[in-house]
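hiii so um. not sure if this is the right channel but i have a protein structure encoded as tokens and i wanna go backwards to a sequence. like what aa goes where. can anyone help
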């Protein structure tokens, strides 16, 4: 008979180590306050916003950090690009200054990205809109109009996609592991529209197969714009616009920005009106100078059928 051992079981192996890489760091002589590192960021209790796979926190008085597994370095790269091109509107229109980008690589191959930016005081436009007199609304909308006009004047490249001729990150386009090539970049507007339809077929499956056949025939003509790409914020809703103490506006969350068709900003901004509880929708044309109701209606139809 085998003798049973009374010795305790061996200790569990230690968890795999994590490592952090600095992808971008502002030179020390350009920002004299030491930047927060990962441990300080993750221990911050001053939480501004928590979303799926993302968290935004304030660290000390000078920093705001977005981090999580769903945060991508392109968010910070877009901030730098937009800030450079909107510099002439400072200090009335502000894009927060990017200070650092970190990535932490942990167990299970999960990567967490940290976007460290300079904190800009202000209130989200959606939280104060109802209390703002019309004159202040028009002031804010006028500044947004100037900002959009300026970034739309940036000479366009020969593609539709994110900066550096990379994939589009919006949900209307497939993830990197999609079975079909739906994330771009695209050479033409027609290719972009076809990618939306491929995404619709992939997500809708057999349930929406017949509608996909119909949409595939009609939408290339109904969505078509002028065939040119323009730089676009991609999520220009009030929660991403702050009104500062002096009436200046701060535009945040550039994660979805890139080179899109001329109608994209209008369609997405109108979709983001949500429950249409106030008159924000009537100010969107004042910001963008153009309306694209057909593109809005059809894009909203696709979104509703797939994700609502």
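sure thing!! here u go:
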């Amino acid at each position: 008979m085998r003798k049973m051992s009374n010795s305790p079981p061996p200790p569990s192996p230690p968890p795999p180590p994590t490592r952090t890489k600095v992808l971008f760091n502002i030179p020390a002589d350009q920002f004299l306050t030491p930047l927060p590192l990962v441990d300080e960021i993750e221990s911050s209790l001053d939480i501004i916003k928590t979303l799926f796979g993302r968290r935004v926190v304030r660290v000390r008085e000078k920093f705001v950090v977005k981090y999580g597994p769903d945060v991508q370095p392109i968010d910070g790269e877009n901030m730098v690009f937009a800030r450079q091109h909107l510099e002439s509107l400072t200090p009335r229109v502000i894009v927060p200054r990017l200070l650092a980008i970190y990535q932490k690589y942990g167990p299970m191959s999960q990567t967490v990205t940290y976007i460290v930016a300079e904190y800009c005081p202000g209130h989200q436009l959606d939280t104060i809109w109802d209390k703002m007199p019309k004159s202040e609304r028009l002031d804010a909308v006028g500044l947004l109009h100037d900002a959009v006009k300026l970034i739309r004047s940036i000479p366009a490249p020969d593609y539709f996609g994110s900066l550096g001729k990379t994939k589009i990150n919006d949900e209307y386009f497939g993830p990197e592991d999609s079975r079909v090539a739906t994330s771009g970049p695209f050479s033409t507007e027609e290719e972009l529209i076809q990618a939306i339809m491929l995404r619709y077929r992939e997500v809708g499956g057999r349930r929406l197969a017949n509608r996909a056949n119909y949409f595939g025939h009609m939408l290339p003509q109904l969505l078509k714009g002028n065939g040119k790409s323009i730089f676009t914020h991609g999520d220009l809703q009030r929660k991403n616009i702050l009104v500062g103490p002096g009436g200046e506006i701060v535009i945040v969350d550039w994660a979805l920005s890139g080179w899109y068709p001329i109608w994209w900003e209008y369609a997405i901004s109108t979709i983001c009106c949500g429950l249409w509880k106030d008159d924000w929708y009537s100010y969107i044309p004042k910001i963008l100078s153009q309306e694209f109701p057909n593109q809005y209606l059809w894009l909203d139809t696709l979104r509703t059928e797939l994700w609502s």
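oh and The longest strand covers residues 98-105.
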